[in-house]
Design goal:
By secondary structure, the chain is mainly α. The protein is built from 3 helices and no strands.
Length: 67
C-alpha cells in the first residue's frame, strides 16, 4: 500500500539509529513490525490464567507413534 506521511526529521533519524536501518522506509517497517509483535504479545499475556490447557501431550504422542 502506498502512503504519504509527514514525519519529524529528528524522530525519523532517531528511529533509523535505534533500528539500525539505513533508510526511513526500512526503519518504519522495522518499527511497525516490532510494535505489532509487542501488541500481540501483550494480548497473549493478558489471557494468562484465563485459558484452561490440558497437558495431554503424552497421549497425543502415543497416538502419533501408533500411526
Amino acid at each position: 500500500m502506498r502512503m504519504t506521511l509527514t514525519l519529524d526529521d529528528e524522530l525519523t533519524d532517531q528511529l533509523m539509529q535505534v533500528t539500525g536501518e539505513k533508510t526511513p522506509l526500512f526503519a518504519i517497517r522495522h518499527a511497525l513490525k516490532d510494535y505489532l509483535a509487542a501488541v500481540q504479545k501483550q494480548k497473549l499475556l493478558a489471557l494468562r490464567g484465563q485459558v484452561q490447557v490440558e497437558d495431554g501431550w503424552r497421549q497425543l504422542r502415543q497416538l502419533d507413534v501408533k500411526e
